[in-house]
From TrEMBL, chain A:
<dbReference type="InterPro" id="IPR003439">
    <property type="entry name" value="ABC_transporter-like_ATP-bd"/>
</dbReference>
<keyword id="KW-1003">Cell membrane</keyword>
<keyword id="KW-0677">Repeat</keyword>
<dbReference type="GO" id="GO:0016887">
    <property type="term" value="F:ATP hydrolysis activity"/>
</dbReference>
<keyword id="KW-0067">ATP-binding</keyword>
<protein>
    <submittedName>
        <fullName>Ribose transport system ATP-binding protein</fullName>
    </submittedName>
</protein>
<dbReference type="InterPro" id="IPR050107">
    <property type="entry name" value="ABC_carbohydrate_import_ATPase"/>
</dbReference>
<dbReference type="InterPro" id="IPR003593">
    <property type="entry name" value="AAA+_ATPase"/>
</dbReference>
<dbReference type="GO" id="GO:0005886">
    <property type="term" value="C:plasma membrane"/>
</dbReference>
UniProtKB/TrEMBL annotation, chains C, D:
<feature type="transmembrane region" description="Helical">
    <location>
        <begin position="185"/>
        <end position="206"/>
    </location>
</feature>
<dbReference type="GO" id="GO:0022857">
    <property type="term" value="F:transmembrane transporter activity"/>
</dbReference>
<feature type="transmembrane region" description="Helical">
    <location>
        <begin position="90"/>
        <end position="110"/>
    </location>
</feature>
<feature type="transmembrane region" description="Helical">
    <location>
        <begin position="35"/>
        <end position="53"/>
    </location>
</feature>
<protein>
    <submittedName>
        <fullName>Ribose transport system permease protein</fullName>
    </submittedName>
</protein>
<feature type="transmembrane region" description="Helical">
    <location>
        <begin position="237"/>
        <end position="255"/>
    </location>
</feature>
<feature type="transmembrane region" description="Helical">
    <location>
        <begin position="65"/>
        <end position="84"/>
    </location>
</feature>
<keyword id="KW-0812">Transmembrane</keyword>
<dbReference type="GO" id="GO:0005886">
    <property type="term" value="C:plasma membrane"/>
</dbReference>
Amino acid sequence: MITVDHPLLEVRGLTKSFAGVKALQGVDLSVRAGEVHCVLGQNGAGKSTLIKTLSGAYQPDSGEIFWQGERITIGGPVAALERGIATMYQELDVVDGLTIAENIFLGHEQATGGLLHVASANARTAEILTRLGHGEISPRTEVGSLSAANKQIVSMARALSRDTRLIIMDEPSAVLDSQEVENLFRVVKELTAQGIAVVYISHRLAEIRRIGDRITVIKDGRSTATGLSVTDTSTPELIRLMTGRDVDNVFPAAEPIAADAPVVLSCHELGVRGVFRNVSFEVRAGEVVGLAGLVGSGRSEILEAIYGARRSTSGTVTVNGEALRPGSVAAAVAAGIGLSPEERKSQGLILDEPIFKNVTLSSFGRFARSGFLNERRERQAAREQIEALELRPANPDMVTRTLSGGNQQKILLARWLVHGTAVLLLDEPTRGVDVGARAEIYSLIRRLAEAGTAIIVVSSEIDEVLGLADRVLVISDGDVLTTTNANDIDEPGVLDLVMRGSAA
Amino acid sequence: GGGTTNAQPTNASVEGNEAQGDTIVIGFSGPAADHGWLGAINNAAIAEAEKYEDIDLIIAEGTNDANLQISQVEGFINDKVDAIVLLPTDGAALTEVAIQAMEAGIPVINVDREFSSTFAARATILGDNYGMGVSAGTYICEELDGNADAVVAEIAGIDSLPLTQERSAGFAQALSDCGMSVTNRVAADFTVAGGEATTSQLLAAAPQIDALWNHDDDQGIGVLAAIDAAGRDEFIMVGGAGSANAMRLIQAGDSVMKATVVYPSTQAADGIRLARLLVQDKAMSDLVEVEIPNRIVLNAPVVTSENVEQYLPTAFES
Amino acid sequence: MSEQITQTAPPTPQAHDAPPSLLKRMLGGSAGRNLGLVIAFAVLILVGTLTAGDRFASFDNFVTIIRYASVLGVMCVGMTFVITAGGIDLSVGSVMGLASTMASLTAVQLASAQTSWLLIVVIALAVGTLAGLVNGVVIAYGRVVAFMATLAMLVGARGLAELISNRSTQIVSDQGFLEFFRADLLGVPILIWIFLLVAVAGWILLNRTTFGRRTVAVGGNAEASRLAGIKVQRHMVYVYMLSGLTAGIAAVMMLGRTTVGTSTHGLLYELDVIAAVVVGGTLLIGGRGTIVGSVLGILIFSTLINVFTQNNLSTSVQNVAKGVIIVVAVLLQQRFASRGSPGK
Amino acid sequence: MSEQITQTAPPTPQAHDAPPSLLKRMLGGSAGRNLGLVIAFAVLILVGTLTAGDRFASFDNFVTIIRYASVLGVMCVGMTFVITAGGIDLSVGSVMGLASTMASLTAVQLASAQTSWLLIVVIALAVGTLAGLVNGVVIAYGRVVAFMATLAMLVGARGLAELISNRSTQIVSDQGFLEFFRADLLGVPILIWIFLLVAVAGWILLNRTTFGRRTVAVGGNAEASRLAGIKVQRHMVYVYMLSGLTAGIAAVMMLGRTTVGTSTHGLLYELDVIAAVVVGGTLLIGGRGTIVGSVLGILIFSTLINVFTQNNLSTSVQNVAKGVIIVVAVLLQQRFASRGSPGK
Ligand SMILES: Nc1ncnc2c1ncn2[C@@H]1O[C@H](COP(=O)(O)OP(=O)(O)OP(=O)(O)O)[C@@H](O)[C@H]1O
Ligand SMILES: Nc1ncnc2c1ncn2[C@@H]1O[C@H](COP(=O)(O)OP(=O)(O)OP(=O)(O)O)[C@@H](O)[C@H]1O
Ligand SMILES: [Mg+2]
Ligand SMILES: [Mg+2]
């Protein structure tokens, strides 16, 4: 470990509020060169706000920032980049219409007198991609055609394209599968070996254990602990620091499913041309089935095809014995299927509408008499679910945009609880959700299953799939490799299968 | 064909002029026929051309964009038509291309909106816009006995057209000659809806009116609808252009509409005829002079209940 | 993008306790959102009264203002739905012209036959709705950008109206029709009553029915709405049909007002209608719409014209002032609205 | 890893080797994206040749078509930048009218003085750029929706042009000016050369410079661009200034073509310009623009008019056909483009 007089970056008493919301109320942080400094905190604790003040995207209201011992202000994104602070933002910050090379050099184009050097930009991009272990991607590829995981790689490459001293990564692993996370860690280790510091934000404590050096915990906009050593701090203590309470971070125990539980959902040789084929399985009442696989293996598409959001080109979906019309969401919803989509914000919620309207989005028709809505009854129904799920704030009129990720996820669950479903499809239900809310969502899924709902869960975290599900389907490149009881397989086992599957 | 202005005309009798000659191609272009008078102009031109078996009319009608109209005339030049009858959307803007046509040996007949150069047209047929204003003003002066305190309202057409400005200038001149002036003026857009909308506003702004001149009988339908809706009848109204509809109202005599000033809708038709005579080296009958005149300004008579029978048959339908 | 929105117009602090206070609800609700408009409207009336005195501030003059606004206002109601749903309809003016032409043509041809004048009304509404249906299908199922699809309809419907009418003006002489639509009821012209009726119906439809809820949802997030089980494409078709229907109603009103149907009716109305709706506070990106705002918006425009006419100012001056007022109104609107629209 | 490749081109299973074949690059590149347009253009020329024969397929006629397109085409280049950057500029036609009025007014007033005709050019360009600056500032810093801000400019600039010219047409009689802009070079009119120059410059600016990359970036994701250090607001101002500048250039060309400046120049040009750009394949939501497509778009429109005129068809028929063709072109465009635009 390199010892220097000053930490690379030091932050004292940083505050920032947005018209009425105090996002930061006094944050201290000290980052040394060459370390991986993890920032932990619940959803809405202020982690992203903190890093945005460091990257120049926001101006803090008060507080001091020191860079190599010198007090500085960061006036804008350019100022931060010039000092060597590069940021990978939580919301994907790439431009779809540009190529990878163009994205990477956006804002610091390789040019003379405004004229671009396309070839040299492409060559340098190829170098960086190779360094990231993705030499097979062409720098000329348009970013819009990449998967979320590959976009994250572009984001990373962009940070590396600059002469950086500090790279801030805001939940980079949220859209990555375990294989890609390994690759990310390899790069991070390379960087720190060169004396570059990394600020790493993640809700996955296992990752922190593997890669972090020190930890800063933020709770309600305040740093409750700074500079904790990763090796000396136990997980329960971290959780206590974050949430102020004890959380059982284990998956709730599953009761064995009754032998006579009826089959609720059945897919027969379902396929979407060019994406996946011949998917056949059944889900019984009270059963949780997990789909495991790498990013881009087609799991989301399977859910979408079942739900009718994507028209299947072969096979059938049957709910309680009745075949569904392919390509019709309305038919699926009417038959009792509910979907909580992968991209919460863009596919799930109307962010500028109040909570209760999002909760009743699939069922508001029920609160209407010949077309006229009864908002009082609607609000009441939403409030019941909000309370049952301990959604915070418990105000049905609150605008959805301001809620934390975990609470937004709960809205989607509440939506289907109000509607009442026989089959619930959950695509990445804990992506970007903090430990506390995660545990709540896990137990909620279990409770729903116990109440007789058939559930399918897709998650990039294999341990999550294995922990939640009764039965697991391992998917690779649109093929179901195996179907097995969750107890009969472990994470390396799944990865092994997937590797062999994609090699074949 | 291939008419030139130098050749001596061969015949000046009516029968001779009617006689079929070599088939000639005439290009006709006018502004967008987006209102009755312009529609009548086009229809009359087409009808006129159809009367003669020796006329092959190419119509590039319908634009208010000088850029496009220029390219239409360029098209005529490319096609080497024998003559061009042009009602320009803006006289000055079309002058250069008209000169180009003349230089290419194609006689141009300028209709209604005048070019800015005398070299741009072989012959020019104009309605008398200024004269229209004068006629309307004079009529109102007479009807109101030059009462200087009288409230005179004016509903103009599209204000940015030179013809509107000329009409207004003539109107103001005639009124001032008898000591009167325009009290309220609004500009509509030659459409019925525009006439209705501006008139309803005008009537609200002027609670008592003695006389009103409306530049155009098409928008006049809207003007009358607004007057009717407001239940106003304390004034006399004079129209413009002379539509059949307006004349029928004058004839009936039970509305505020007392007179209208004719602005002939046959100008382009006359243009077609002149073009034919020019190309076929004929002269205008009834003129002693064998050459076609350079400039014809049509009269702007006032139509009242006394002489309406005389004008109604040639009036245009909206 | 989403962050920009929250940045541009800071969200008002929201009370965490369940029922917001009455004042807050008022300010956060339609009165507060429309405060900028109400101020602008009041200033305009003040200016009118100061410069034109009793001639301006008279019952008859207000009737004139509102009657003028009523034709456009009816279309504003339909447009509010389209824009709230995240679309745009550039064709309303043309469609109105087409509907007026078709209806009056029928009236003229049937003048001899003893058909009821209701036929005129039915034809106008049917033509408008049909044009809206075409717009909606091309946009929702053909996936043509709304701006282009309705631009095509703008050009096409005008051409069609010219073709079928041979560019001549059709005078409606059906006395029953004219008497009804040119009459007064309780001293107020029928046209104003129709406007009121359409506005109230529109308000209820947008704010109190499932149709309105769907419209807001689709405009707020079409993909989320689709995945929640709303038939987004079908709903978009309905919304454009509604806009076409209001254009048809406007055509009937125009027939009543001018007594003629012609292809030139409604020329450039789309600009005034869209401007009024957006100035009124409906977000051009969709997801938020206000009928009250749209009505205020169109009333402001028509009062503006009236004030200028009262002061004998030329159309040129009116246009310059209108340009300035549009910008100022949108700025005010953003300041007073609880959330602004983004910069693009 | 095989997934990226299957991801980039969804429907067909693709070879796994990294560099795409030439054919694929062609089809994925500008030729492929513009294939729909090229086909439409070819069909149009075929129809013209079949129906009007030599009158259509002559050098002089093509010059006529392109010269007409050149004034609009120059504005299409500026508009391509605005739309690519995620904005819209409804004011180009009005601004062109205003610039032509101001420039010709100066010319008339300076007719006696011995000033160079370059002054006319400079004034037209300056007026255009200034109007663009105002648009840009109101949009980028005032955060007024582009549609409304430029609609206000549309109305306001036209009014201003009428006011300063007192609605009269200004005839430019400067011989130097007229001779230059009405001349031919190598048998081709100067106006066409200017169009070509502006198009080539625009192509280079959009595709080969930092400015162009940033325009695409800002239109594709404004927030990401800001975070990458691009001064988004300032860039938007530049883009609108560029559009204003091209309107200024178009004004000069219009002065050369018509010899007059008037407030009626450019009426409704915004619709043709926007339609041509979008039909050309520039995404109305921003983030993707093509100069070649825009040029093809405006050429298709002007050829269309020419073919119709050659066949003696009325404007009404032209309009109906134009409406249909806009929709079909956008549909074709979407089919052949590598990615379609969304349905709203
Ligand atoms: N632009 C903004 N306007 C208003 N409030 C904001 C804004 N950005 C963040 N907030 C609020 O500030 C608080 C902190 O948010 P922040 O995004 O920093 O949390 P976080 O720790 O990154 O959460 P997560 O783990 O979900 O990413 C939250 O209450 C959030 O609602
Ligand atoms: N819109 C699309 N168009 C074409 N192909 C797509 C599209 N979306 C996804 N695909 C392809 O479908 C396959 C499955 O993608 P998807 O990302 O849904 O898988 P996944 O297993 O759900 O992974 P993730 O964990 O990222 O959700 C991939 O090959 C992907 O490239
Ligand atoms: Mg965050
Ligand atoms: Mg997925």
